[in-house]
């Protein structure tokens, strides 16, 4: 039995050499070229079991080859690699029929894994052509490893209508991802309708989502279409889904189960012809334990989970983002500001509690308030200091001053354990530390529920009797009611 043959096309000789050696060691035959025309000739002659092609080559764009290869040999899988590590590249590669997209520089183990998977996977028809859009219009920016994973997930999801749940801190770009899923997906010709659950009064959410009939309630003088109807044929983006009240959660679950809904005051079912994308900055599993979010609704929405990384997890993207925002804010009015090396380093050591939105605001502020073209670290530091001084206590402290709960606990534990080395008796450490954490946690939860032990137990995920015992053992005062 002959070994599978891999056709490699890349105008970089060193990449061709590295791939040829790695694939050879992996048990494959390899034919490599620096020309798209040679690759196409091999494909026409029936050569190869798999293609690995670069995007930019001297005589033709590798992405343009994919549809031709798929038409001529639909069983021949194509893997695309590119140093242009953008969302658009990933989407184009996927929607033109590529099996996988690999950003450069790539890991050779990953290449071998992709090759093995591609050879073992039956080819599928190309779903659709890409909607025209230029690279400059792309709103998601970044070439870090974590963003490449996001791009690949988005690219794969554009060929389906699966429900997506996006989780990420405020300012990470959840709506931008939702818009990308819509703009490059099957429903791009339909409307994109965004609803922020946190911005709608509780008593109006059902009417907002499902619409209402004339006379359905006081003030309903005419029929009004809800967001589900407005988004028909397109995408409905439910932002901050964790803030949806329980009664609306029940209605939404019914719609997802039945595929139809009725307006408030209506009786005729209306088909829900929308793709649902939800987003939240909350931990919905914790909300389920607290009894504020339905578990069955969570699983209906969490078909494809996506986690957007905070900016502090992709600091290598900060220079690219900062330059983009400086260019965008200049808008032809005066010179474009440039950050010097020290200023850029200062940006990369800040923790960015407001994430990409905070970085964008900072660049806008610098452009507006500082006329000099070269921006130094002193300007960046002063603007960050001004912003953090206005932030709520405990938020926005950059340069290592902000810390997570885990970091705070670790810092206190380190101090606690160090005291044992200085002669303090150390025994029953576990019970002592847990008691130190439990007391303020339970006290603050009781304060938040105004002494309601049933609600507090639900929030904490404890049995009510267990909570009562802890209150008694830890001697926690319970004050009922209050302002």
TrEMBL record:
Signal sequence region: none
GO CC annotation terms, alphabetical: cytoplasm
Subcellular location: Cytoplasm
Keywords for this protein: Activator, ATP-binding, Cytoplasm, DNA-binding, Nitrogen fixation, Nucleotide-binding, Phosphoprotein, Repressor, Transcription, Transcription regulation, Two-component regulatory system
GO biological process: regulation of DNA-templated transcription; regulation of nitrogen utilization
Domain Response regulatory: 5-119
Modified residues (4-aspartylphosphate): 54
Principal subcellular localisation of the protein: cytoplasm
GO molecular function term, any single one: sequence-specific DNA binding
InterPro entries listed in its UniProt record: AAA+_ATPase, AAA_lid_NorR, CheY-like_superfamily, Homeodomain-like_sf, HTH_Fis, P-loop_NTPase, Sig_transdc_resp-reg_receiver, Sigma_54_int
Gene3D superfamilies per the UniProt record, alphabetical: 1.10.8.60, 3.40.50.2300, Homeodomain-like, P-loop containing nucleotide triphosphate hydrolases
KW Glycosyltransferase (keyword) present: no
Domain Sigma-54 factor interaction, first and last residues per copy: 140-368
Function according to Swiss-Prot or TrEMBL: Member of the two-component regulatory system NtrB/NtrC, which controls expression of the nitrogen-regulated (ntr) genes in response to nitrogen limitation. Phosphorylated NtrC binds directly to DNA and stimulates the formation of open promoter-sigma54-RNA polymerase complexes.
PANTHER family: DNA-BINDING TRANSCRIPTIONAL REGULATOR NTRC, TRANSCRIPTIONAL REGULATORY PROTEIN
Protein name: DNA-binding transcriptional regulator NtrC
Biological source species: Komagataeibacter medellinensis (strain NBRC 3288 / BCRC 11682 / LMG 1693 / Kondo 51)
UniProt gene name: ntrC
């Amino acid at each position: 039995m002959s070994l599978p043959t891999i056709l490699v096309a890349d105008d970089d000789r060193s990449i061709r050499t590295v791939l040829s050696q790695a694939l050879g060691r992996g048990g494959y035959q390899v034919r490599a070229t620096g020309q798209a025309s040679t690759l196409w000739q091999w494909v026409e002659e029936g050569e190869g079991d798999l293609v690995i092609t670069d995007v930019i080559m001297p005589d033709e764009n590798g992405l343009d080859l994919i549809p031709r290869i798929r038409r001529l040999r639909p069983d021949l899988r194509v893997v695309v690699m590119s140093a242009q590590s953008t969302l658009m590249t990933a989407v184009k590669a996927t929607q033109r029929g590529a099996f996988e997209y690999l950003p450069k520089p790539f890991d050779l183990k990953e290449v071998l894994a992709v090759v093995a998977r591609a050879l073992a996977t039956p080819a599928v028809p190309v779903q659709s052509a890409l909607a025209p859009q230029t690279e400059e219009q792309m709103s998601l920016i970044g070439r870090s490893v974590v963003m490449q994973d996001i791009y690949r997930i988005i690219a794969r999801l554009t060929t389906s209508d699966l429900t997506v749940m996006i989780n990420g801190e405020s300012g990470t770009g959840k709506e931008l991802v939702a818009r990308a899923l819509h703009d490059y997906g099957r429903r791009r010709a339909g409307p994109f309708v965004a609803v922020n659950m946190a911005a709608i009064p509780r008593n109006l959410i059902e009417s907002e989502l499902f619409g209402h009939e004339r006379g359905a309630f006081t003030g309903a003088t005419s029929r009004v279409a809800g967001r589900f109807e407005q988004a028909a044929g397109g995408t409905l983006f439910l932002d901050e889904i964790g803030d949806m009240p329980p009664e609306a959660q029940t209605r939404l679950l019914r719609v997802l189960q039945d595929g139809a809904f009725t307006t408030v005051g209506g009786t005729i079912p209306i088909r829900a012809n929308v793709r649902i994308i939800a987003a939240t900055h909350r931990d919905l599993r914790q909300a389920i334990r607290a009894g504020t979010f339905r578990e069955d609704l969570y699983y209906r929405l969490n078909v494809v989970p996506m986690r957007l990384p905070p900016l502090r997890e992709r600091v290598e993207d900060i220079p690219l983002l900062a330059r983009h925002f400086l260019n965008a804010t200049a808008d032809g009015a005066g010179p474009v500001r440039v950050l010097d090396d020290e200023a850029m380093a200062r940006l990369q050591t800040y923790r960015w509690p407001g994430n990409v939105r905070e970085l964008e605001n900072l660049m806008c502020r610098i452009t507006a308030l500082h006329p000099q073209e070269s921006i130094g670290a002193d300007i960046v530091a002063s603007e960050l200091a001004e912003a953090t001084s206005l932030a709520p206590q405990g938020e926005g402290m950059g340069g290592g001053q902000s810390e997570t709960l885990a970091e705070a606990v670790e810092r206190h534990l380190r101090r606690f354990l160090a005291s044992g080395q200085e002669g303090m008796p150390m025994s029953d450490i576990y019970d002592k530390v847990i008691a130190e954490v439990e007391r303020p946690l339970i006290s603050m939860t009781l304060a938040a529920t105004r002494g309601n032990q049933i609600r507090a137990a639900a929030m904490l995920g404890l049995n009510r009797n267990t909570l009562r015992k802890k209150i008694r053992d830890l001697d926690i005062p319970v004050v009922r009611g209050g302002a």
